[in-house]
Amino acid sequence: MNMWNFSTQSALVAIIVAIASTIALLLRSRRKLNLRFAYFSSSISFFYATILLDTVIAQKIWLMHVRIMLAGLIVVTATYFFDALMGEAGLMARERRRKTTFVGVLIILCGLTPLARMLWVQVGSGVIVLAFLVARIQAVSQRAVEVESLAERTRLRYLSYGGLGTLLGILFDCAYLLNLPLPALGGLGVAVYLYFLSQALLFSRLLDLHELLGKAIVFGTLALVLALLYGLLVIWAGTAPIFLFNTFLASSLILILYDPMRAYLEETTTRLFFREHVTFKRELRQIARRLATTIDLTQAFEMVLDDIYDQKRATHASIYLLDRAGLGFNRQMYRGPRPQNFVSGKKEPVFFRYWMGPSPTPLIKEALQHQINQKKGDRFLTENLANEEGGMAEEEALLTGMMAVNADIILPLKSADDLVGLLCLRDERMTAAFTNDEIAALIQIGEQLAITTANSHMFGELKEIDRLATLGEMSAGLAHEIRNPLAAIKGAAQAIDPQHVSEEDSELFEIMIEEVNRLNTVVVEFLDYARPFGGTFSAISVQVALQKTIQLLKHDLEEAVEVHVDIDEQVPEINGDAEQLRQVFLNLILNAADAMNRQGQISITCYGTDFGGRVITDNPDDVTHIEIRIKDQGPGIPPHLKDKIFIPFFTTKQKGTGLGLALCKRIVTHHGGSIRAESSLNEGTTFAIRFPSLKAKMGLAMKPMGSSPLSLKG
Predict the structure, then answer these.
(1) Percentage of the chain exceeding pLDDT 90
(2) Of 267, 304, 298, nearest to 284 (Cα)?
(3) Handedness of CA 587, 592, 598, 604 (dihedral sign)
(4) pLDDT digits over 303-324, tens only?
(5) Which of 207, 231, 247 corresponds to the end of one domain?
(6) Is 455 helix (H, G, I), strand (E, B) or coil?
(7) Which residues constitute the domain of residue 72?
(8) What is the pLDDT of residue 433?
(9) Which of 92, 254, 374, 465 is deepest in the core (most CB within 10 A)?
(10) 3-class secondary structure for 480-540?
């Protein structure tokens, strides 16, 4: 009997693919799910080995025994593997595994007895195996109905359809073993299905159909070309003495050609069959090149989001930047439904610390969910359940953070080793999510966008330095050319004896001295604004700085100005310079008094808030920011002037310099805070200043991750 018929060749393919896939996975990682796959594929390869041996062994009775025992083993290993793959770890899953193990052991015991030689036992064991495998495929199909992600749903359907096709091939194998005139096609189906499962485990997610087809085309073409090369060189040698040399030469040629041929075939296959992905990758490369010549952040953000959105590869797209205080991420721009405006490190500590950790990798929602399912599936096999639950809690917290920004994939914007922000994408229309090549291109976009962001900030700082240098040169001239004559004029005016001048002339001298003082104040403010920012930062109390400022102003404010103060004594400290903060408070309070023509009420409040601005009064540990609000009863700021009040030298006062608010903003920004004006005509103006608390900032920086950052592959 010819050993190498179609049935034995099909069985050999199944054996080789099962062994190769198992070795490739175990060399990569020996995690529990990979071991379950190894047990499952090994039991299948042994089963097909009995088909291979069936043609060369005359005494086949013992093969029947071994085959039935392997059938029972397949029932057990398949159930454990698919439960781990789907993350089924509840009481019902445990009960199902116990029952399956019991049935599998019964089949194995039957294989050890003479009953294995009876036809009804052989048929019955085959039916039981097929029934259990159908049940597992049905569970996969049911999971496809339950998942939310369209891409994941489509992939699970591929998995179930492929499983049903493989089972149909196994039916042909069973018919072949019963000596029915049908070809044993199951080996080929099993080989493809095991390869699909191994690739899903290798990439931590189920593959899309186009990815699997692409790999199959590349693999098949590469194998055919290399086999032809190898065969031609070996056949040419024949039985000649150079046979071993030609074999060595053929092997060397294959090793040399493998990588370039694989790259060429992958690129060609993708270009021919999956043009949409090629177009998207080409567009991403063009974006990266354009970003390299862009310095304006708004233009850069619009370019990235608009191009990705217009390519119909995202229904949700947004960019977040790390806030100046390092306490969370601020949304800068978005396309599609509005995501959360601010992702706070306090509310999402695991998510925040993951990105602030060393070398964060892109977060992919389906990969996270896949890892959670794996850990759920491993829980029934591990002794340390607390650690498994802790790991799942961390990954579930990362999923919560991804939901907050409406993302299925988040890529870090990193410049050198510093995290700048996040690029968040989600696509609800596509059945296939982002491929590995697309993710690699998006990572390149993120890196270039981070460089653009850093360059833009640096450019802004250089412009500020240049502007301050110019002001410094001007201030030096002012100090010498203006203050010295002013001092002489003021001294001369004060030296005149009032008794020797008329009352009218005396009033003129007083106006002269007053105007000299005003000009001197202008010069002082100009010098203050032009002076490089200094100061000594330390832990300071905002309420103490406020109270000292108010005490200092009591003698400068008229009795018609009433100051109402409401300060929360439990407000935490901040990191700053007390003298510079008093300068800010002094300027804002005097501005408020001037806005009311020195009559009316000024309300000053100070309290703790969370990231979202919610006032915290009951639990000081929840306070992440301190907010100071200074409100007047003046006429308010006209809407068309509201955006200009912090611009240097812009003023609405007749005797103002336009540097007071600009200096306030500069000091507040240097403290990692923010300042804004809230105003309505005829209802007064409120200046709100917000600083990060020292405790929250140190807490986020020092609190470690529950485990090392996750390494997720797309």
Answers:
(1) 4
(2) 304
(3) negative
(4) 888 888 887 778 889 999 988 7
(5) 207
(6) helix
(7) 6-207
(8) 61
(9) 374
(10) HHCHHHHHHHHHHHHHCCHHHCCHHHHHHHHHHHHHHHHHHHHHHHHHHHHCCCCCCCEEE
Q: Which two tokens stand for residue 613?
A: 């601005």
**Domain match, 200 and 317 both:** no
**Structural domain count, the chain:** 3
Report the SS3 class of residue 682. coil
Residue 11 resides in a domain: yes
The two beta strands, 600-609 and 615-616, are antiparallel
What confidence score (pLDDT) does residue 218 get? Answer: 63
Widest pairwise Cα distance in the chain: 141
Q: How many residues does the chain have?
A: 714
**Residue 496 structure tokens:** 């005149």
| Rounded Cα distance, 386 and 707, in Å | 13
Residues 180 and 54 in one domain: yes
Query: What does the pLDDT look like over 191-219, one tens digit per residue?
Result: 888 887 887 777 655 555 556 666 666 66
| 533-552 per-position pLDDT tens digit | 666 788 888 888 888 888 88
Angle between helices 150-177 and 365-378 (to 10 degrees): 50
What six digits make up the tokens of 26? 């175990």
- Are 593 and 329 in contact by the 8 Å Cβ rule? The answer is no
- Read off the CATH number of the domain in which 688 is found: 3.30.565.10
Residues 6+ apart with CB under 8 A from 626: 542, 571, 572, 574, 606, 607, 608, 609, 690, 691, 693
292 Cβ contact list (under 8 Å, min separation 6): 448, 451, 452
Name the pTM for this structure: 0.56
Q: Is the dihedral of CA 434, 436, 440, 446 positive or negative?
A: positive
Same domain, 572 and 706: yes
Note the pLDDT tens digit of each residue in 294-306: 888 888 888 888 8
What is the average pLDDT across 16-44? 85
Q: Which residue did the predictor score with more confidence, 559 or 596? A: 596
